[in-house]
Structure formats: C-alpha cells, structure tokens
Specification:
Layout lengths: L1 H18 L5 H14 L7 H16 L7 H12 L8 H12 L4 H15 L10 E6 L6 H12 L6 E5 L9 H5 L13 H8 L3 E6 L6 H13 L1 E3 L5 E3 L3 E7 L9 E2 L5 E2 L4 H11 L2 H4 L4 E4 L5 H19 L6 H9 L2 H35 L1
Parallel strand pairs: 1-6, 1-9, 2-3, 3-6
Antiparallel strand pairs: 4-5, 7-8
Helix pairs in contact: 1-2, 1-3, 2-3, 2-4, 3-4, 5-6, 5-7, 13-14, 13-15, 14-15
Length: about 375
C-alpha cells in the first residue's frame, strides 16, 4: 500500500495537467484505502491507478476544480458493485446484530463498545485493531457475529477468514500458518492465512474453537497479539495491524452442563464465573493478558428457542410454498426437543427442516387418501 501511494504521488502531476484538476495527497490516500477495503479481486497498483484515472475523467466532465472524495466513492461503487458505508460503523453493526441475535444483549453491548474504541482510534497502532475471545455454547451466533463485524466494519464479506483450530492441534501444524521450511515440500506455497492477509490486510480473522490449537500454534498468535505481525518461513513479514482477530470457544459448555428442569427444559446453570474459571484454567495468563475483551454468549432459553424455531419454520415454509396451520404450537414443539437445546440455532434449523418435510409428506398422504375414498 505504501508503494502504491508513492506511485500515485509520482503520476499525480500528469493527471492534474491533463484533466486541469487539483489532486491532494489526502485524496490519493483515500483511493488506496478504499481500494484496499472494497476491491478484493484486483491488485495494487493497477486498481488504484484505474480509480484515479476514471474519477479524474468524471470530475473533469463535471467541470470540477479538484478531485473530491465523492468522486472516488462513486467510481468504486459503480465499477466494483460495492456499497461504501460512511458514518458510525459501530451503530450500523449494532443494528445488524440486534436483527440476527436474540437473547444476547450483553454480548452485543460489549462488542459495540469495543468496536467504538477501534473506530475512535483508541488502540495500539502496533497491534491488531482488536483481539477478542467469544465464549459460548454452539449455535448461539459467535461465528455469525464475526461475519457481521467484517461486513459492517470493513464493508465487504471478502474481508473474513475462518480457521478451524482443530486442524492445528499438532506441533507440525505451525507449518500451516507460516509455511514449510526452505527445501521442504510446499516451501513455495503460501499458507491459507498468509495468502488471505496479503490480499486482504483489512480483515476479520476467526480462530474457531481456539482451545483445540496446539501450544506452539498459539505461541505464533501470541506474537501477533503483542506485536501485530509474524514472519513466514521465507522470512517475509505478515502484518496483522489492520485486522480484528476473533477467537471462538465453547469451553465450559458441554453435555454435562445441560440440566433439565421439571418441564424438561434446560436450566441456565452455567454462570459467567463458571466460564471464567474454565477459560482461566485452560489458557496461560500471558495469552489471556493479550486479549482485549472476552465476550460471553448466553445459552438460548425456551422463549428464544421458540422464537427462532418459528422464524425458521416461516422461512422454510415460504421457500416450499407451504402454510402451517398451527405455527406457534409447532415452534414450541421444536424448541422443547433436546437437539435444539444442545446445538442452538443449528439444531433448531435442522429440526425445522425435518418438521416441514414431515408436514408436507403428511399433507400429500392425506390428499392421496381422500382421493381413494
């Protein structure tokens, strides 16, 4: 990006003379930043030069005296079919999370507070923008929240990568992150993470089920959390200073935590203190001390599960052009089943699909039966 900016500064006078425009260095910086954030399928410096060229032509046609930020935004939106959102990203994210997460108000408020700090620039410029640990049972929205942060903060779904840390459980897994040593098979190939960060330096990086990663792998990220970079095997530096790193974990949430009450539903007997204790016992203090914030996601209660089940039933029924006669009762039935309790939204989705298929088959069977009478 620095080299691209220098190239633009070097050719700026040619564009100013040809188009009779004034082009400030600040506008050139915005071109580079917007291209980096929103144009993922093209490479520097070409994409930045193209934007400068087309924006200058448009500004000249409008008889402008200087190139403005709006010219840059319009060109990028038109050419690359993206939407550049300006304004309060934290509030836009809050609106999105409130629409997709039910029963997670505390988690949402904690996340928005942290994103607000990033937006205001209250962070160490030599570290990642943010390092978060999302803790909660499966199917409550941890991964979807990370995707929404990528979309709302960085403005593009491509600014997101998820690593399944169960695949990094051996000491040899370090090579998956930094590449193979010189002379070994695969030395020429970049790792999945390195390749993504090189193309998308502004990204959300999700380390899914981070508790399953080997200590040697966590040590690599320990360096990233502290200094904002690591060196791949070829000794090239990989910069994470413009990333938000989100680790997810379900530590403390397992089958033994799911207790039934008298009506057969799960009591939320897992307290935040319980989870803090489990997390503290699993990770080393030096690792936890480099995390900016731990965000706790709740177990889904009966009312939340019922609402989600109803939403999924309506969604799938609409796609199948089917109408339920007793939607509320069916949603309660789904919410009371163990799969939904234990596996959260994913379990509820599976049950809603099964319910829809069952009802469609039942309807078809009744039609056949009525015709035969």
């Amino acid at each position: 990006m620095t080299q691209t900016l220098q190239i633009l500064q070097g050719i700026k006078s040619q564009f100013e003379t040809f188009h009779h425009l004034t082009i400030s260095d600040e506008i050139l910086k915005k071109i580079v930043n917007y291209c980096d954030l929103y144009v993922c399928d093209r490479y520097f410096p070409d994409k930045a030069i193209d934007v400068l060229d087309i924006a200058s032509v448009r500004a000249k046609n409008k008889k402008q005296m200087q190139l403005e930020e709006k010219n840059i935004i319009d060109v990028i939106e038109d050419l690359f079919k993206v939407k550049i959102e300006k304004g309060n990203k934290a509030q836009a994210l809050k609106k999105s999370l409130n629409q997709i997460l039910i029963g997670q108000n505390q988690a949402i408020n904690t996340i928005i507070e942290q994103i607000s700090y990033i937006e205001m620039g209250i962070n160490d410029e030599n570290r990642p923008l943010g390092v978060f640990l999302f803790v909660g049972p499966t199917g409550v929205g941890k991964t979807e929240t990370a995707k929404q942060i990528a979309l709302n903060y960085f403005g593009n779904k491509e600014k997101y990568i998820k690593l399944d840390m169960s695949e990094y459980s051996e000491p040899s897994s370090v090579t998956k992150l930094i590449g193979s040593p010189p002379g070994y098979v695969g030395y020429e190939r970049q790792s999945l993470l390195v390749d993504h960060i090189r193309k998308n330096p502004h990204s959300v990086v999700v380390l899914d089920e981070v508790e399953k990663a080997h200590r040697d792998v966590l040590d690599i990220f320990l360096s990233v959390f502290d200094e904002g970079y690591f060196y791949e095997s070829s000794k090239k530096r990989v910069d994470f200073k413009n990333t938000i790193i989100i680790m997810t974990s379900n530590l403390g949430f397992n089958e033994k935590m799911f207790h039934k009450n008298k009506i057969g539903y799960v009591d939320n007997q897992v307290t935040q203190d319980d989870i803090q204790s489990v997390v503290g016992n699993h990770f080393r203090p030096e690792f936890l001390n480099r995390i900016d914030c731990v965000v706790y996601f709740n177990l889904l209660d009966l009312n939340t599960c019922t609402q989600l089940a109803k939403d999924y039933l309506q969604e799938y029924a609409k796609k199948a052009h089917y109408e339920f006669s007793s939607l509320d009762e069916l949603a309660k039935e789904i919410a009371s089943q163990q799969e939904g309790k234990q596996y959260g939204a994913r379990g509820l989705k599976r049950l809603a699909k099964k319910m829809l298929i069952s009802k469609i088959k039942e309807t078809e069977a009744n039609k056949i039966k009525s015709k035969s009478v």
